[in-house]
From TrEMBL:
Residues 5-117 form the HotDog ACOT-type domain. It comes from the Bacteria. GO terms for cellular component: cytosol. Keywords: Hydrolase. Transmembrane segments: none annotated. Belongs to the acyl coenzyme A hydrolase family. This is Acyl-CoA hydrolase.
Amino acid sequence: MTIDPRGEVILRVVPHITDINSNGHIFGGWVLSQMDIAGGIVAGHIAQGPVATVAIESMKFISPILLGDVVSLYAWEERRGRTSIGIRIDVTATRGNSQRGIDLTSGLFTFVALDEHHRPRPLPIG
């Protein structure tokens, strides 16, 4: 396996037959939930605690996800505010015997750090 220029894979998943829509592609909502999980992992690490998704921006589907694809999610900090973090998430797939990489979707998710009362809190310095 080669190293991807986007860095570390945060999540790698394989969709199931129950994730297929009537067109034979994987539901967009399925990949959206996987992106939210991957982004939450990165945002929670940066926030050093719980986070909540507050916005999804500039989401773009590039190629359909097919049954049998191995889906890899890359996520990293793109911007930071006082209480919020913008996490860029790119999704790719390896498909078939060739294992060629296919760009599937990309989006910018905004997470807010939460305190013990589930209210926004300042991010740690650093």
